[in-house]
Amino acid sequence: MNVTIVGAGSIGLLIAAFSSKVGHKVTLITNRESQAQILNEKGLIFKTNQGTVEKYRIEAVAVKEIETIRTDCVIFAVKSYHLKQVLDRLSGSIQAKAVLFVQNGMSHIECLSLFNHEEIGLAVVEHGAMRLEDNLVSHTGVGRINWSIFQGSKEDSVLPNFFSKSEDVNFPFYHKKDWQKMLQTKLLVNVAINPLTALLQVKNGALLTNDSYYKLMSEIVRETVQVLGMNGKQGLEKVIEVCQATKENESSMLRDRAKGQKTELEAIVGYVIRKANEQSQSVPSLFFLYEAIKGIEQQSFRGAGQ
């Protein structure tokens, strides 16, 4: 199968490595020409969670060089705040049977109306990954990819075939019938872990071992499940499960803060706050988190401009 992955950050490179491993022909679309060049010249280097190193030959193309994308499946693996810009650039250029979105949050659902493809899929990634160099990605935590069909698809169509190809125990796929419940569950995990670890500058596991941090996380979960209409007990159990499984990991938002980069705050916490406002619900903990991370971002940007 021909698979085109838009976005060559940690998740895009991780999916590219496992797609190559099972025999798909992978094309990576990068933001920078320099990254495309090094991927083409040196290949994609994959450091497994066991510490071994694998190398895959893929094709990489900078986004500004793209005219038409002819492929079986396009996977959008860019950050949520880059998605609209990328879609504006590429949506008219995609000739594919299926498109798949793997963004955090739920704001990307509003972009799906731009597509009239046979199959549209959604997925959430629960793996830990870190891009160490432009062509080197490390699998820092084994998780799973949950996927669901938003539109179209039959048993023998592109997306089911793509997800059924892998039997690697370190990269399992799980099909979910209810895409909305799937995204809400991942959103809850992101809201509970990412901004709090970024604010406190701690690894995920600290939210379980520090009593005060745990109380803060529990209150964030309580407010979020109330807004999303989820079961509170099950929601907290899921967040604890992910925290435990990724206890040595730094959240993506914490890494973004450390690098002085923009975070996915709007797509994660901002989305829940907007929903709370629509329902006239008070979410003081979420509001505090949102403004705190927003302030840190603004301070970082001002410092970078000096």
Verbal overview:
Residues 178-297 form the Ketopantoate reductase C-terminal domain. Pathway: Cofactor biosynthesis; (R)-pantothenate biosynthesis; (R)-pantoate from 3-methyl-2-oxobutanoate: step 2/2. It comes from Alkalihalobacillus alcalophilus ATCC 27647 = CGMCC 1.3604. With 306 residues, the protein is of the alpha/beta class. The protein has helices spanning 10-21, 33-42, 80-90, 158-164, 179-200, 206-209, 211-228, 232-245, 252-259, 265-278, 284-305; strands spanning 2-6, 25-30, 44-47, 53-56, 59-62, 69-76, 94-101, 119-125, 128-133, 136-141, 145-151, 173-175. The chain folds into two domains: 2-177, Rossmann fold (3-Layer(aba) Sandwich), CATH 3.40.50.720; 182-305, N-(1-d-carboxylethyl)-l-norvaline Dehydrogenase, domain 2. It contains eleven helices and twelve strands. The strands form two sheets. The chain has an eight-stranded mixed beta sheet with strand order 5-2-1-6-7-8-11-12. A four-stranded mixed beta sheet has the order 4-3-10-9. Helix 4 (158-164) links the parallel strand 11 and strand 12. It is globular and about 50 Å long.
In short:
It holds the Pfam family ApbA. This protein is of the alpha/beta class and 306 residues long.
Q: Name the overall outline.
A: globular
Query: How large is the count of helical segments?
Result: 11
Biggest β-sheet, characterized?
8 strands, mixed
Derived structural class: alpha/beta
CATH class of the largest domain: Alpha Beta
Could you state the CATH homologous superfamily of the largest domain? NAD(P)-binding Rossmann-like Domain
CATH topology of the largest domain: Rossmann fold
Instruction: Work out the helicity level.
Output: 40-55%
Strand percentage lies at 15-25%
The span between the termini is: 48 Å
Radius of gyration from CA coordinates: 19 Å
CATH architecture of the largest domain: 3-Layer(aba) Sandwich
* Strand order, sheet with most strands: 5-2-1-6-7-8-11-12
Q: H/E element string?
A: EHEHEEEEHEEEEEHEHHHHHHH
Beta strands, count: 12
Number of domains: 2
GO biological process, one term: pantothenate biosynthetic process
Domain Ketopantoate reductase N-terminal: 3-150
Organism: Alkalihalobacillus alcalophilus ATCC 27647 = CGMCC 1.3604
GO molecular function: 2-dehydropantoate 2-reductase activity; NADP binding
